[in-house]
Write a structure and sequence with these properties.
By secondary structure, the protein is of the alpha/beta class. It is built from 10 helices and 14 strands. The chain has helices spanning 42-49, 71-74, 92-103, 108-118, 131-144, 161-177, 189-193, 213-218, 227-233, 273-282; strands at 2-13, 16-27, 31-36, 57-62, 65-66, 77-80, 149-153, 181-185, 198-203, 206-212, 220-226, 239-245, 248-254, 266-270. The strands form 3 sheets. It has a 6-stranded mixed sheet with strand order 6-7-8-3-9-10, with helices on both faces. β12 (239-245) and β13 form a beta hairpin. The structure holds adenosine-5'-triphosphate. Adenosine-5'-triphosphate (ATP) is lined by residues 13-14, 18, 36, 38-44. Adenosine-5'-triphosphate binds next to α1.
């Protein structure tokens, strides 16, 4: 079931058209990756979805209701981003209590469990936490707040590998206990890809890929062999990138392929999501 709908959305900042006629739907209870290179408008889209900023044109609706000035709809959303919205003098425990006062039904039990896992001291003041621990505090709030839509803008910023793993585990844990919609932007594509149900890829202000991870991975291939063989094999396929290494060529393909390789001396491998997105963002740049 579709819950969030983005309709003909445009965002212009100082004559720069950051988002161009975006139309998107987010299904209920799924994990989305909102991906794209630096500066393509991911944070802008999340800010628009939570009405931190107003769109130049277009609108966003939840269950058919425009979110504009709609407290009921906006109360269903929680955005974690790099802004530190808490007073530095607030202790972590007080932040949890404050969130409970604002949203109600804060999951104190899970917050306590996660604080223990991440080794976050509840008595420390927010202003005294390291960058990574501030992120951890915000992650715990985002996972324990009782909303239907959790938007996580670069949630692993400043986290070391161990804490990133704990974050991924906690996400799987909270999602399996209480399935709800997560929209996550991240540059750690291969790490995050294992968690995603859907991928939305923005480039030049437009959505250029929007599909389930299953279908995307089913169509993503790297084909390696002599240039002639690879060229011949891929002649009717959607080639999105090429790489030459000595006498070997690899062509990256986003298409259905059959594995009839008998007459070709080639190797067909799966292409990972990061490579796919690099190829897609470079289309048309080779000249
Ligand atoms: N409030 C604002 N005023 C003016 N320009 C803005 C504003 N917010 C964002 N921009 C511009 O919009 C563009 C998109 O920025 P945004 O932060 O949404 O990108 P992003 O995809 O989240 O990037 P990153 O991956 O680097 O975080 C950038 O060129 C940025 O400078």
């Amino acid at each position: 079931m579709t819950e969030i709908k983005i309709n003909d959305l445009n965002q212009v900042f100082n004559h720069q058209n950051v988002l161009k006629n975006i139309n998107l739907e987010f299904k209920n209870k799924a994990i989305y990756g909102l991906l794209g290179n630096n500066g393509v408008g991911k944070s802008t889209l999340m800010n628009l979805m939570t009405e931190r900023i107003l769109p130049t044109s277009g609108y966003i609706s939840i269950n058919g209701h425009n979110i504009h000035n709609n407290d009921v709809a906006l109360q269903q959303m929680y955005l974690l981003n790099e802004d530190d919205m808490y007073s530095p003098s607030l202790k972590v425990r007080q932040i949890f209590n404050l969130t409970n006062e604002i949203y109600g039904n804060f999951n104190f039990k899970f917050a306590k469990l996660l604080s223990k896992k991440f080794d976050l001291n509840l008595s420390l003041k927010f202003g005294k936490l390291s960058t990574g621990y501030r992120t951890i505090c915000k992650i715990i709030v985002a996972f324990c707040v009782p909303v239907k839509y959790v938007l996580l803008d670069e949630p692993t910023l400043g986290l070391d590998a161990n804490h990133r793993n704990l974050f991924y585990e906690a996400l799987i844990n909270t999602y399996s206990h209480n399935p709800r919609t997560f929209i996550i932007s991240s540059h750690l594509i291969n790490e995050i890809s294992k968690l995603l149900n859907y991928v939305i890829f923005i480039n030049n202000g437009k959505i250029i890929l929007n599909n389930s991870i299953e279908i995307i991975m089913k169509n993503s291939f790297a084909i390696t062999g002599s240039k002639d063989d690879v060229k011949q094999y891929t002649r009717n396929l959607n080639v999105i990138g090429k790489r030459n290494l000595g006498k070997l060529s690899t062509f990256y393909v986003y298409d259905h392929i059959n594995n009839q390789t008998k007459s070709f001396n080639i190797k067909i491998e799966k292409m990972n999501l990061q490579r796919l997105l690099i190829c897609l963002s470079n289309i048309g740049k080779e000249g």
